[in-house]
Amino acid sequence: MCYRSTEQALALPHPSQIKWLALLRNQVVSAFKISYDASTKTFTIVPSRGLIADRTALETLIKTIAYNNSSDNPTPDRALAFDGVNDYVSISDINALDVSDNFTLEAWIKATGNGSDVTTGGIILGKQDSYQLARFADGSIRYSLSAAGDGSVDGWINTGISVSIGQWAHVALVKIGTTITIYLNGGSSAGGSEASFSTQPSSLIANASNFTIGGLANTQYFAGSLSDVRVWNVARTQSQVQWAMRASLSGSESGLVGAWDLKEASGNVATDRSSSANSGVLTSFSSTTRTMGS
Q1: Are residues 102 and 234 in contact, defined by beta-carbon separation less than 8 angstroms?
Q2: Does the global pTM surpass 0.90?
């Protein structure tokens, strides 16, 4: 962090390339006015009385803005809308997606309905009979793991975390050995929430199922918008989840084995931005034009 003269702007870099500007004047104060220019993605922060900003108060404010992620999609230019009837994205099985001992799954979601199944709602992402993440019809976020890779011993675990209809939320599942942690909007330290579960399968046997987004091949279709779907073959820390959830990744990040941002302007291809380059195919969509993410 670099402080300039009182007549210059303070620019603070952020992973999502949002510029933070603070104008400093003559007297130290700890109250601020904030404005946002959507066209330039720029926040302007000024002392409420046009005076010098208290450093500690300013840093606290900036951290709050950067990591209190309870409402907005991080990159609101585009998302892919699923009709909750038969839309889904199919991605061919590759070895990189056969994550097992330690891994991380994440996505931004905005439900517009309960999903196609009256109980199990809609799939967010996953491989059938291996690992899956879903939003059930009651709004609860649930996951399923199958150690055998054949669905014989899997079951849906209710995380106790819910996402309301019409609300953008970031959901991350982190597996470390036998422990699963679900982070909603980066967890409690970022203004969200989390839940952990032990005695989970220590490893998952690989299977040949395709990876799917927004539903399975014939059931459990998600109703709403999805974006920034990612799979990592490492267990990401909470701070790493918070850092990356609003960031546009390069695709070469260590451990990133799948990254479908679903932000193409249109078309039937969901491009994999990771080094795996394992792009998916939109299936049964009446319109492939991406929607605004707000």
Answers
A1: yes
A2: no
For residue 202, give the nearest of 177, 179, 185, 234 by alpha carbon. 177
Kind plus residue range of the DSSP H or E element containing 125:
strand 122-127
Alpha carbon distance 279, 45 (integer Å): 41
Element (H or E) spanning 131, and its range?
strand 131-135
Which tokens sit at 149? 């890779």
Cα–Cα distance for residue pair 139/144, rounded to 1 Å: 16
Q: Which residues contact 250 (CB under 8 A, 6 or more apart)?
A: none
Interatomic CA distance for residues 130 and 149, integer angstroms: 5
Q: Give the pairing type, strands 156-162 and 193-197.
A: unpaired
DSSP states along 30-78: --EEEEEETTTTEEEEEETTSSEEPHHHHHHHHHHHHH--SS--SSTT-
Tokens 């967010």 identify what position?
Answer: 124
- Measured in degrees and rounded to the nearest 5, phi and psi for residue 55 equal -60, -50
pLDDT score, position 293: 55
The residue ranges of the chain whose pLDDT is under 70 are 1-30, 32, 36-43, 48-53, 58-77, 153, 292-294
